[in-house]
Amino acid sequence: MEFAAPTLLVLLVVPGIVLALAFAPRRPVRALTGTLALWRRAARGEALSGSRRRFGPPLWLLVAVVGLVAWAVALADPRGPAHEREEWLVLVDRRPRMLLAHESGETRLFVALEAARARLFEERGDVRVRWRSPGLEDLVTRASDPAPSARYAAAPAAARPPDFEAHDGPGVLWLSCDAPERAGASDAESTSTGAGFVASGGAEVPGFVAAGAVTWTFWESGAFSEREAPTGTGTVVIGADVPELVADFARVFARTRGLEPVAAAPAGAESNAAVRLVVERAPGGAPLVDGVALVDPDGRRIGLLDDGRALGVDAGAVGIVAVRAVEPASGRTEPVTALADGHLRVAPGVWRAPDPEALALGLGALLDRALAPDPRLVPVAGRRDQGPTRAQLGASPEPLPTRFELRAPLALVAAAAFALAAVLRRR
Amino acid sequence: MRFEARSGRATPSEDATGVRFTPAFRRRLESFTTRLELLRRRREGAGNTTLAGGGQEWIDLRPYRDGDDLRDLDWSLLARSDRPFVRVHRREAAERWAICVDTSASMGVGMPGKLQCAAEVAAAWLSVGLRSGAEIELLWLESGTVRARRFVRGTELSDGLNVLESLRAGGERGAAALLAEPRLAECGRHVVLGDLLDLEPRQLLAWRHRVQDVVVGQWLAQREWGRGLSGARRWRDPETGDEFEVRTDGAVLVRYEEELARLLERWRTVCGRHRVRFGCFEAGLPFEDAAHELFGI
């Protein structure tokens, strides 16, 4: 809850003091009277004695305190903040092309993020913004907050763009370096029918556009040339707790892919990590990656864990996505690997491989998918001149359920409480 | 009297049990008496007085005492009963007054105390009576025993004031004990001053038919009117020592005020029906105000 005048909440001190005084332990005032009999008749059953002699504050005072609280809160004017009236979804392209330098001195990604935030704030106010990018958790900020540039700059580049077409509607912004083609353009890479967009733009950036075994293809001003492949293309970071069998295979995999296996994450290793192997147990046994268990129907085991569970391979629509352990008795399965951009998560424990070739096939496929793209390799389309920075908000999202305006009801509650307290006081 | 929880000892800050007549009060008393005497003389000229009996109409009989005028002897009654009785004339009866001051412990409640207020008005009756030549019996209670002092023409008022200043509120017995005193039958005017909380109005009427004039003055302390009260109180009856704890606000206070109003209305009704002059006052009211009402001026 937000308040238009939060400083007036200090008035809540008043009912607080009243309550504190009312509940402060007090002994009844002692006094003489010649009309004790009248008091007895007047009190009827209300006189207290023995352990019930403690007097609490009278009801009218409690009701008045409720009124004071309502009055103080009403003065502070509680209301639903503007930023919660709607939420915008920004799909962030983090492919290597977004990491190219912009003529402003920043990266294209930084320029696009800031342009999106500024445009939303200018046109829609302090709305809620949900930033989404492949391989990363969603971030929710307000338009008045800084854009999450630092968070995205620290993450490795994504191999693929966001699924723009799946989110083509009101309240969505596509964030990339170039503007999407509108519907009807036949050669469009992405077409939008309802979503807005933010394009960082940017001048042409020459560089490598393709990688060969020995030489890489360089592009500049429309001309291609072959150059010697750069060294130090990346590392495979192997976490300390990664099972030995998996770690051994990862080292072999790194050498075959021209990568350098590193035992942990020394300084600098993270920045150019092509893939990281980390140990992580799925919380509560939930699958880390959805997929279909492909335990071979004839009972062939491709791997074993020290607890006797067999290892199978999960595959999704795009291929193998996880290795899964199977309880021989119950058949219950639990994923022991999970894949995300730049990360391969594996289950802890001692892995054994009765069928090493099958296990190597599964892990190799996973590691290939986990490899982050080399940020130095950007296709020609991404290196071309993208034009100026542009932004266009599409249709606004459906408004979120707005908060009930509380000022008027609170004022009514306060007035009713004061009136009731006055009536109770007179009775 | 504010009494402590353990000792029950009173402090003089909230209750006053004694009587004190300041020089200022004595001057006001003198002024009041003078004004009243002038008023009485004017009214007597018109044949209407409330301070003395009138004519030779006899209204009662009493046993013969040495020195009584033989012309007043009821010879026929003497012949029938063989006992001497003299006729009591209206004027004679009216000139014998009884001033009864309730000095029960409850009269010490409040500041100023109810006893102080009653004593001030008693002083006014004493002063007026002595100037008009009445014979006055002043009755009060001391340690539960009825005490009396007779004042006749020529007695210095200061003697009466000294007696009144010696009064102290205490004991359980109050106005009811004073009204049971037989010597009241010899007086034509009864002035009863107190809080009357131990008295029922009908008790006042037991001897009303034999008395020419009855005046009743009642005082209640501010807290007994229910004013200025809030929160919890532990009341203590100074006469019985009973205690009672109650919240003195809200519905209880309203019901208390209703009970008190009913009690006072009963007094007013009964007194009005029997031509008894009655006034109820809050302690602290200037004595002139109460006296004006009780003197009927």
TrEMBL record, chain A:
Q: Does the keyword Transmembrane apply?
A: yes
Q: What is the lineage of its organism?
A: Bacteria, Pseudomonadati, Planctomycetota, Planctomycetia, Planctomycetia incertae sedis
Q: Which organism is it from?
A: Rohdeia mirabilis
Transmembrane intervals: 6-24, 59-76
**Annotated stretches, region: Disordered:** 379-398
Q: Which domain of life is it from?
A: Bacteria
What are the UniProt keywords, alphabetically? Membrane, Transmembrane, Transmembrane helix
According to UniProt, the name of this protein is Aerotolerance regulator N-terminal domain-containing protein
TrEMBL record, chain B:
Q: Which InterPro entries match?
A: DUF58 (IPR002881)
Question: Which part of the chain is the DUF58 domain?
Answer: 60-261
Q: Which Pfam families match?
A: DUF58
UniProt-recorded name of the protein: DUF58 domain-containing protein
Give the organism the record lists.
Answer: Rohdeia mirabilis
Its lineage opens with: Bacteria, Pseudomonadati, Planctomycetota, Planctomycetia, Planctomycetia incertae sedis
